[in-house]
Amino acid sequence: MIYSATKWMIRRLFMKIRVLAIAPYPGLKDVLLDVAGQDEAIQMDVEVADLHEAVPLVQHAQRQGYDMIVSRGGTATLIREHVKVPVVDIPVSGYDILRVLTLIKNTHAKVAIIGFPSICRGVAEVSSLLGLDIPSFAVEHESEVTHALEQAFEFGAEIVLGDMVTIRNAQAMGYRGILITSGKESVADMLGEVHRVYEVHSKGQEKVRFYQQLLDTDARGIVVMDEARRIQYVNRTVCHILRQAEEALLGQNMMLSSPALANVIKQAGESRQSSETEHYVHLFDEQYKVSVIPRETEGRAEYLVYLESLAKWRSERRFEAFIPSRLATFAQLAGSSPTLQKTVHRAKKFAESDRNIWISGERGSGKLKFAQAIHSASQRQQEGFYIISCDEMTEEQMYRLVFGTAQAPGLLQGGYAGTLYLNRADRLSPQAQESILQLLRGSRNFRCIASSSIAMNKLAQRGDYHPDLIYKIGELHLSVPPLREHLEDLEELIRGLIAEHNSQSGKQIVGMRETVLERLTQYDWPGNLPEFESLIQEMLMMTKGHYTEWEEVQDVWERLVQHAGTSGTAAVYAQIDLSGTYEEIEERILWQVLQEEGMNQSKACKRLGINRSTLWRKMNKMLKNKT
Ligand SMILES: Nc1ncnc2c1ncn2[C@@H]1O[C@H](COP(=O)(O)OP(=O)(O)OP(=O)(O)O)[C@@H](O)[C@H]1O
């Protein structure tokens, strides 16, 4: 408090109070300049204007940084409605009344006074002291003046005393009016009031600045919008989140500033809840919780919106979920073959609903890509897309992710919403299945999309999979075809890969020769798109001219065929039975590779990408299981 008082004193020592005076009649200008000229703390400019003429002048003055405006009577009242800076009245003092009464003292004409109640009281007081009988007609508003004048003239008045509005109307009606002018004493009183108001106002401004600072340093974004969703207030955090300057946002419709946020706020409005509602939105790769609070200020509806970043939670990496920076859309799925288009059509239909989906398909067939496209086309597109790699999470990790810990809330407690992608959902342990099941039963914040390379019905037969979970996630089922079932799409996929390669390498490849393409379509692609992509990328690296020539890539091709034909990973994928638990499948792969390598452990290790001790450990376990 001491600090702000001192600060105020220092300011007062060095700065003058800038005042614009609006004089409703010319004579007041000189009095104002004369009296204000004697006050060193005041710098006053004067304009002569009455009522509506004054409005543009004061609006301009406000922009020019005047601290205060002074005026008189009806003009002061009108000005107050149009500016935010304080407006001080030039009063009509007892001296002013005494002067005008002295002026009319000896007249034989009947006199009446019309004015605001305070003036009428002053006149009644002074006239009774002087022994004069002057009836008064009090008005509360400028619009009542004509009626008051009519009453006064009916009463027999020939001269009316009043302010500028009264005098002008009386003259227009053909009567005489005498203006009660403000003298030096009134102007001096007004200047005293200017000092008092300035002090109070400055302290108020200090407070406003203090609260402004508090709001600006709040980590939450704070927005106030009117009923038409025009932005009335934003704190600095919002400017940072939306990457726009305050000036650009204020007065702007939210739909133009941030359509994503506007949609969420619209949803909140449409939910017709009068209390706070919570939503989630994805802005510039960040997930935010949006709380919308409808309220009313001075009879007008308003929305108070809080934006809370969830980045803190994510950066703590409490769980193995993440938000990919760019998600695929249906338009980005290459392939116009009837087979793929049938799948796309089905997926688009699924995107319209919010029901859970089970996607099955061979490894690398594009399940994740389809899940992303569904999310991007769904009503949850503004929310997060979270991938849970089921084969990489322990039961405990899954439990903590769903139910939280003492330190951090889990998915079930809220704070996240969107699409939950369970990658390789068939690898969930029974315990982890239970956690996911409880999450889906207890929260409506997520749509779940699970993926597996095993068909859903096979999973149901496995016995270690919770039937309720299959039932809950498998509300809708999408089967993504392997690449060999839509080989017509290879050329389109190649075009995309060439474009990407050219942009990275600076080459100008325009296509592949027929001889190369023919071979590509004669292959089964058991490793699906990842296998295809890596081969094409290698071929493009070998390409020197505009076309990929067979001679340039023959070696690459033969290596692939040899690998696949003899013992390659691709062949293993094609022949291995993928039913059963992860351990059982792993066992089968191990045996297959060992047999193909003539039980040569070094060769098997090399192909499997593991060291000898790991192979030993696994073989021992296998033997134990068999005995
Ligand atoms: N229709 C498509 N157009 C272009 N690229 C695609 C398409 N579908 C998949 N891909 C690409 O193929 C690769 C594998 O796709 P994705 O990860 O979606 O397969 P997946 O079936 O989910 O794999 P996994 O079973 O290993 O989890 C990715 O590089 C992806 O970008």
TrEMBL record:
Domain Sigma-54 factor interaction: residue ranges: 333-541
Family matches, as Pfam families: AAA_lid_14 (PF25601), HTH_8 (PF02954), PAS (PF00989), PrpR_N (PF06506), Sigma54_activat (PF00158)
Biological process per Gene Ontology, one example term: regulation of DNA-templated transcription
Matches recorded under InterPro entries: AAA_lid_NorR (IPR058031), Homeodomain-like_sf (IPR009057), HTH_Fis (IPR002197), P-loop_NTPase (IPR027417), PAS (IPR000014), PAS-like_dom_sf (IPR035965), PAS_fold (IPR013767), Sig_transdc_resp-reg_PrpR_N (IPR010524)
A GO molecular-function annotation: phosphorelay response regulator activity
Keyword Protease: no
Top-level taxon of origin: Bacteria
Hydrolase as UniProt keyword: no
Keyword terms of this UniProt record: ATP-binding, Nucleotide-binding, Transcription, Transcription regulation
Protein name: Fis family transcriptional regulator
Organism: Paenibacillus rigui
